[in-house]
Predict the structure of SDR family oxidoreductase.
Amino acid sequence: MIAVTGATGHLGRLTLDTLLRRGAPAQTLVALVRSPEKAADLAAQGVQVRRADYTQQETWPPALDGVSRLLLVSSNDLNDRPGQHRRVIEAAREAGVALLAYTSLLNAGTAQMGLAADHRATEDILRASGVPFTLLRNGWYTENYTGSLAQTLAQGVLLGAAGDGQVTPATRADYAEAAAAVLTGEGHGGATYELGGDEALTLSQIAAEFSRQGGRPVAYQNLPVTEFAQTLNSFGLPAPWPRCWPILTPAWRAVNCRPTVATCAA
């Protein structure tokens, strides 16, 4: 059986959809969710739906019963993500899970942004656990920009603090394809995959593409770091997130970018 955590979230749900499309029998798939009632449509397709909460250790042994492969989609709770992930990893060890794939962060070993520390800590927990694992180091999501596209087009401005730094965004569906390939394939144990889109883009280039596709002018406005953080806060982004957003200053890029392809962790 293949289990996916966060199965009602964006990436978890897309991964299950991809597994089904690839021909995985529904009865061999397990959707791990905090609220099973929210996964009723998956249950209707024959997918097993089990309750599992990152914050409640007792939910994990029954949730992982019989599971041989597990996708651990990283928690979006910034309070104690490594601790939450540890609960899952320890339960996976006890359950005898044969492969755990973890959605980490692009260049997690060297990335300097705030989000990287939690991913590095989780990777260390995995290495010490004895559970066979694969690291899916996902880059920045295209949806981080397209999710607010209507507002960007209406205002004609894409805000950021990136300068001429480059990102290689890919869609959640692309990352779901990678996860499904690992969960159903062979030879991925111990592998680390740095994942991202095919093309490195500046935010100015992204703004230009929005303008071309949307039929109205969109300009990239580069803000000082503190002003950009305040802007994100004003949009309602929780306090920890602005410090985690990729600030692509030249010094930051020197640490996080691959020199051959100018790809930045995000």
